[in-house]
Design a protein that fits this description.
- By secondary structure, the chain is an alpha/beta fold.
- The protein has 3 domains: 256 residues, Thiamin diphosphate (ThDP)-binding fold, Pyr/PP domains (Rossmann fold); 155 residues, 3-Layer(aba) Sandwich (Rossmann fold); 140 residues, Rossmann fold (3-Layer(aba) Sandwich).
- It contains 27 helices and 19 strands.
- The longest helix is centred in the first third of the chain and has 19 residues.
C-alpha cells in the first residue's frame, strides 16, 4: 500500500504547505481546523500502511496544531509524556515527508528523540516523566536567565504514575513558569483506573462548575488589563473561591498550580485562545483538556484499547486488516501466559494477577474476565505494583505481577528491598523480554537478566517455547522460597503443541536439545531456537554443535556447564540480553572460579542502545539470527582451531553426555 505524499495539495491542501512551525503561523486561526483535518487524514494513511501508535496521536491533533501555532519551537520547549502522542508534532516540525519511515530501521523513531530534531526537547518512551523533565528545563532556564516557555503534555493515563505527583509537588513549590497540559481521554492503553480518574471525571461532569467556567476563564483575561493590585487580588480571590466550592478538593491548586479547564480538546479556536492566555501567566499552571482517543477514525473511537497502536495493513474505511494469510498463527506468548494463569488459579485460590495499566498488553485481561475479584490494575505505577504484590504475598497470597521488561526497570528498588530481601514468593511475569522491534530502545527488554542476576534468592528462568512457559508458570506457582522471574518475548510462539496440564521443572536444571562433537552452544529463551538453526547451518562447515537449553540463569545449572566444559574446548553462549551481566558473563565467571580455561564466545546484545526496526532486521543487524550466529561461531571456532596443537586436539573427549 502506497501513501499519498503529504506534499499533494489536492488531498492535503493545508499540510502540503507546512514544512516547519513557521509555515503553520501563516494561516488564519479559522483555517487551523483545516490543518488539523489534513494532519488527521495523513496520519490515518500513514499508519494504515506502516503501523505505529495510533489512537493517542489522533486524539491530540487539534491540541498539537494549536500549540505549535501559539508557541515557537525549538526556542520554546515541548515535552511529551510517553511520546506516542507526538506523531502530529513530528509532521509539523519538518518530518512529514519521512513519516513513512516511522519505526523502520534507519527511519524516524516512534517517540520523540533529541538527536532526531531540535524540536524534540526531551526523549520519552516511558510514562509520567514529562513534568519532571519540564521542571528541570524550567529551572535551568531560570538559572541561565533565558526566556523560553516550557510545556509538558501528559495524558493517556500517565498522571496515574507517582513520578508525576512528585514532580508537581516540587514544581508547584518553585513557582517557575511551566504549563502542564493534562490530555484527559480517560485512557492509558486500557481505560484508566483509580481515584485520580474519578476525580477528573467529576471535574468534567460537574454541571455547576461548567456553567460558571466561562467566568473563571474570563477572569484570566482580566489580569492582562491595567488593574490595580487590589483589583487583581480580588479577581484571584473570586476565582479561587469558586473553584474551591465547585471543584472536588481543588487538588491541583493545593500542589501550587493554577488550574484551568476543562475545555474541549478538539476545538482549535478555544485551544489557541487558551494557549495564548497560558503563555502570559508566569507561574505553574495546568490546562485540563478533554479529548477522545482515536478521534476521527470510528473503529479507533469504538475500540480504543485495540487501536492504541496498529501493526499496519488495514482498510482506512473499515479498519479491517489487509494482512490476513488465511493461516492461524501460533498463539502469542502473552496469551499462553494469560490462559495458563487462569488454569493455575482454578486450583490455587491464592493466585492473584497484578498489572500496571497493561491488562490487554500482558493478556491479564483473560484473568480479569475469569477472576475479577483477584485482578488488580494499579495504573501506570510499577513501583507500587511491585510493593503491592509484596504486601499480598506477605499475607499468604501468590501474586503474579505481569510487567514488561522495560517497565520492570522502574520497580527495581522495590523488587530488591520489598520482595527479595524478605524472600516473598512473588512471581514476575516479564513480558517483552529481549528485542521488541519497532518501539526501539525505550522498549527493548535488554537488561532484565543482567539486573535481576545479582539479586539474592531470585529464581530466573526463560522458556524456549510455549509449553515450557506453561510449565515454568506452574513451577513458579508452587515455589515458596522466594521470588521468581520468568522472562518471555513479544509476539507469537514457535508453534509447539500445547499439552493438557502442567509439568514441574526442576529448579536450576537445563537440558540438552541437540548433541554434537565439535563444540557446545549454551542458550536460553528465544535463542534456543536460533541456536538450533545455527547448529544445522554449521553442519555445512563441518562443525557439529551441541545445543543446550539452560532454562535458568539463576540458579545456574553448574553440573551441565561443568560436563560441557570437560567435553569441549569451545563453548558458545547465546542470549537475547545485554552481553554484560547475563548468561555469558555468568558462565564465564563460573568457569574461571572452577579454574577451567575453555575458550568462550559470548553472543548477546552489544553494549549500546539498540535502534528500532523490524525483528527480522534487528536480528540480522546484530547477527543473532541463525545465519548470523553461524557466521560468528565459524569465525571464532576456526580461528581457535588453527591455533590448537595436535596434542590438545587429541585430549578432546567425544563421549556422549547422559
Amino acid at each position: 500500500m502506497e501513501n499519498t505524499p503529504p506534499s499533494n495539495p489536492e488531498k492535503y491542501p493545508f499540510l502540503s504547505n507546512i514544512h516547519s512551525p513557521d509555515d503553520l503561523k501563516k494561516f488564519k486561526p479559522e483555517e487551523l481546523q483545516g490543518v488539523a483535518d489534513d494532519c488527521r487524514s495523513y496520519l490515518i494513511d500513514v499508519i494504515s500502511a506502516n503501523g505505529g501508535h495510533f489512537g493517542s496521536s489522533l486524539g491530540v491533533v487539534e491540541m498539537t496544531v494549536a500549540m505549535h501555532y501559539v508557541y515557537r519551537t525549538p526556542h520554546d520547549k515541548i515535552v511529551w509524556d510517553v511520546g506516542h502522542q507526538a506523531y502530529i508534532h513530528k509532521m509539523l516540525t519538518g518530518r512529514k515527508d519521512l513519516m513513512h519511515t516511522n519505526r523502520k530501521i534507519n527511519g524516524l523513531a516512534g517517540f520523540p528523540k533529541r538527536s532526531e530534531s531540535p524540536h524534540d526537547a526531551f526523549g520519552a518512551g516511558h510514562a509520567s516523566t514529562s513534568i519532571s523533565a519540564a521542571a528541570g528545563l524550567a529551572l535551568a532556564r531560570d538559572l541561565s536567565g533565558s526566556n523560553e516557555k516550557i510545556i509538558a503534555i501528559i495524558g493517556d493515563g500517565s498522571m496515574t504514575g507517582g513520578m508525576a505527583f512528585e514532580a508537581m509537588n516540587h514544581l508547584g513549590d518553585t513557582k517557575s513558569d511551566v504549563l502542564v497540559v493534562l490530555n484527559d481521554n480517560q485512557m492509558a492503553i486500557a481505560p484508566s483506573t483509580g481515584g485520580l480518574k474519578n476525580y477528573l471525571v467529576n471535574i468534567s461532569l460537574n454541571k455547576t462548575y461548567n456553567k460558571v467556567r466561562k467566568f473563571i476563564w474570563d477572569s484570566i483575561s482580566l489580569l492582562h488589563n491595567d488593574l490595580g493590585e487590589t483589583a487583581k487580588h480580588a479577581v484571584h480571590k473570586i476565582e479561587d473561591g469558586i473553584k474551591a466550592a465547585l471543584t472536588p478538593g481543588a487538588f491541583f491548586e493545593a500542589l501550587g498550580f493554577r488550574y484551568f479547564g476543562p475545555i474541549d480538546g478538539h476545538d482549535t479556536e478555544k485551544l489557541v485562545k487558551a494557549f495564548r492566555e497560558m503563555r502570559e501567566l508566569p507561574h505553574p499552571k495546568l490546562l485540563h483538556i478533554i479529548t477522545t482517543k482515536g478521534k476521527g477514525f470510528k473503529p479507533a473511537e469504538d475500540n480504543q484499547s485495540k487501536w492504541h497502536a496498529s501493526s499496519g495493513g488495514f482498510d482506512i474505511m473499515t479498519g479491517e486488516s489487509l494482512k490476513s494469510t488465511g493461516k492461524t498463527p501460533p498463539p502469542k506468548y502473552q496469551d499462553v501466559f494469560g490462559h495458563a494463569l487462569c488454569e493455575i488459579a482454578r486450583k490455587d485460590h491464592r493466585v492473584v494477577g497484578i498489572t500496571a495499566a497493561m491488562p490487554g498488553g500482558t493478556s491479564l485481561d483473560l484473568f480479569q474476565n475469569s477472576y475479577p475479584n483477584r485482578f488488580f490494575d494499579v495504573g501506570i505505577a510499577e513501583q507500587h505494583a511491585v510493593t503491592f504484590a509484596a504486601g499480598m504475598a506477605a499475607q499468604g497470597f501468590k501474586p503474579f505481577c505481569a510487567i514488561y521488561s522495560t517497565f520492570l526497570q522502574r520497580g527495581y528498588d522495590q523488587l530488591i528491598h520489598d520482595v527479595a530481601l524478605q524472600k516473598l514468593p512473588v512471581v514476575f511475569a516479564i513480558d517483552r523480554a529481549g528485542l521488541v522491534g519497532e518501539d526501539g530502545p525505550t522498549h527493548h527488554g535488554s537488561f532484565d537478566l543482567s539486573f535481576l542476576n545479582p539479586v539474592p534468592d531470585m529464581v530466573i528462568m526463560a522458556p524456549k517455547d510455549e509449553q515450557e512457559l506453561r510449565d515454568m508458570l506452574y513451577t513458579a506457582s508452587v515455589h515458596e522460597e522466594g521470588p521468581v522471574a520468568i522472562r518471555y518475548p513479544r509476539g507469537t510462539g514457535t508453534g509447539t503443541a500445547l499439552e493438557k496440564g502442567f509439568n514441574t521443572i526442576d529448579i536450576g536444571k537445563g537440558e540438552i536439545v541437540r548433541d554434537g562433537s565439535s563444540l557446545a552452544i549454551l542458550s536460553i529463551g528465544t535463542m534456543v531456537g536460533m541456536s538450533l538453526e545455527a547448529s544445522q547451518l554449521l553442519e555445512q562447515d563441518d562443525i557439529d554443535a551441541l545445543v543446550a537449553n539452560m532454562r535458568f540463569l539463576k540458579p545456574l545449572d553448574t553440573a551441565l556447564v561443568n560436563a560441557v566444559a570437560e567435553r569441549y574446548d569451545t563453548i558458545v553462549v547465546v542470549e537475547e540480553n545485554s552481553s554484560i551481566g547475563g548468561l555469558g558473563s555468568t558462565v564465564n565467571d563460573h568457569l574461571r572460579k572452577e579454574g577451567l580455561t575453555n575458550s568462550v564466545l559470548a553472543l548477546g546484545l552489544p553494549d549500546r542502545f539498540i535502534t528500532h526496526g523490524s525483528m527480522k532486521d534487528l536480528y540480522r543487524m546484530l547477527e543473532l539470527d541463525g545465519p548470523g550466529i553461524r557466521k560468528r561461531i565459524k569465525a571464532f571456532y576456526k580461528g581457535i582451531d588453527t591455533e590448537t596443537s595436535e596434542s590438545s586436539q587429541s585430549r578432546m573427549r567425544t563421549d556422549r553426555l547422559a
